[in-house]
Design brief:
By secondary structure, this protein is α+β, with helices and mostly antiparallel strands. It has helices at residues 2-14, 18-37, 41-64, 70-98, 106-174, 176-193, 204-222, 245-258, 298-311; strands spanning 202-203, 226-231, 240-241, 265-274, 277-284, 316-321, 327-334. It starts with a helix and ends in a 9-residue tail after the last strand.
C-alpha cells in the first residue's frame, strides 16, 4: 500500500506526457537561446548546472519507482542530485573558461545546484510522503472503527435477543397477551435493524424507529418502571447519521439510569436542528451521573472515537447534569453532512 502511494506520487511529481516533455524542452531551448543572444554566459552555465542534475534525478526516480518505498525514493533523489552536482562541476568550469567568463567557486556552485534541486524536487516528495502517511493513518483508524462497530453489533444483538426471548418465554407462561406484544415489537425491531446490520450509514428516522422498538421492549420488561418519549421532527427523518450512535445512548440510559434505580424512570429522546447543527438529546431522571456513566465505558468511548474519525471537530458528545436532576447525553452532528466510514 505504501509503495503504491510512493509510485503514484513519483509519477505525479516527476512524470509527464510526450507533449509536455516536448514543450518543456522547447522552453529550455528558448531560455538557452535568449541567454546566448544576450551573452549571459555565466547565467546560462549556472542554469544548465542546475537543470541537468534535476532531469537525471527525475529520470532515475521514474525508472526505479516500482522498487522503491518512500525512504528509498528520498535517498535516491538526494544521491542523484549530489552526484549530478559533482558531475556537472568540471563541465561548468570548462565551459566558462572557454567563454572567458569568471566561474563561481566550487562550493558555491555545489550549494546552489544541490539547494535548488532539493527545494524544487525534494520538498514536494517529502510533503507527498507526509500526506500519504496521514491518509494511511486515517484509513486505518476508520477501518478499526468499522471493525469495532461490527464487533459491537455481533456482541450486542445476540445478547439483546437472548434477554428478549427469555422475557418472552416467561411472559408466554404467565401473561400470553404481553408475550405477543413483546414478539410484535421484536419483529418490528428486527425488520428495521437487519437491513442496516451491514450498512455504514443510517438516517435519523431509522435510528429513532430502532430506539422506539427497543424502548417498547424494555417497557414490557420493566413494566410501569419505564416511561419514555421520542420526538423526531418529520423534516429531520432523512438526515444522514452513523448507525448505532443513538442506540448506544439509549442503551446507556437504560443500563445506568433505569436498571439501578427503584421506581419509575422517564427517558426522553429528542432531536432538533439549528442551522446546519443537529442536536440529539437522550435524557433520563434515573440514577444520575456516576463513575460508571462518565464516558469510560466501551460504548461511549467507541462513540467518541467514531465521531472524531467521521466528523473531526464538527461533531461532539457530552454527558452532563441537566435541569431538574436529569442526566443528558447530548450528541451534536453536522445536520447536512454525509457519513463516510471505511468498510
Amino acid at each position: 500500500m505504501a509503495n503504491d502511494d510512493c509510485i503514484r506520487a513519483v509519477r505525479r511529481l516527476y512524470g509527464c506526457t510526450w507533449r509536455q516533455g516536448l514543450l518543456s524542452l522547447l522552453c529550455l531551448a528558448l531560455v538557452a537561446g535568449a541567454a546566448l543572444a544576450l551573452r549571459r554566459y555565466a547565467l546560462l552555465a549556472l542554469f544548465g548546472a542546475i537543470v541537468v542534475p534535476g532531469f537525471v534525478a527525475c529520470a532515475l526516480l521514474l525508472l526505479a519507482a516500482r522498487r522503491l518505498g518512500w525512504t528509498g525514493a528520498v535517498a535516491l533523489l538526494l544521491a542523484a542530485i549530489g552526484a549530478g552536482a559533482w558531475t556537472v562541476l568540471p563541465a561548468y568550469r570548462h565551459l566558462l573558461a572557454a567563454w572567458d567568463v569568471h566561474a563561481l567557486p566550487d562550493q558555491q556552485l555545489l550549494a546552489c545546484v544541490f539547494g535548488v534541486n532539493v527545494a524544487v524536487l525534494g520538498l514536494p516528495l517529502w510533503f507527498a510522503r507526509t500526506r500519504a502517511r496521514a491518509q494511511q493513518l486515517a484509513d486505518l483508524r476508520s477501518a478499526a472503527l468499522a471493525a469495532e462497530l461490527k464487533a459491537l453489533q455481533a456482541q450486542v444483538e445476540p445478547h439483546f435477543l437472548y434477554n428478549t426471548l427469555a422475557n418472552t418465554r416467561y411472559l408466554a407462561r404467565h401473561q400470553p397477551a404481553r408475550a405477543v406484544e413483546m414478539l410484535e415489537h421484536l419483529i418490528a425491531y428486527l425488520h428495521s435493524a437487519l437491513p442496516d446490520m451491514r450498512s455504514q450509514a443510517s438516517t435519523l428516522g431509522r435510528e429513532f424507529e430502532l430506539a422506539g422498538h427497543y424502548l417498547a421492549l424494555m417497557a414490557i420488561r420493566f413494566g410501569e418502571r419505564l416511561q419514555y418519549r421520542l420526538d423526531c421532527p418529520p423534516a429531520l427523518a432523512t438526515v444522514s447519521m452513523p448507525p448505532l450512535l443513538l442506540m448506544t445512548l439509549v442503551e446507556n440510559a437504560v443500563r445506568h439510569g433505569l436498571e439501578p434505580k427503584p421506581g419509575t424512570v422517564r427517558i426522553a429522546v429528542t432531536a432538533v436542528r439549528d442551522g446546519d447543527v443537529l442536536t440529539i438529546v437522550v435524557a433520563d431522571d434515573g440514577t444520575g451521573i456516576g463513575e460508571a456513566t462518565l464516558g469510560s465505558g466501551v460504548g461511549l468511548r467507541n462513540l467518541r472515537q467514531r465521531l472524531q474519525a467521521l466528523y473531526g471537530t464538527r461533531a461532539g458528545f457530552v454527558l452532563r447534569r441537566g435541569d431538574g436532576g436529569l442526566t443528558e447525553a447530548v450528541l451534536t452532528l453536522p445536520g447536512t453532512a454525509s457519513v463516510e466510514l471505511a468498510a
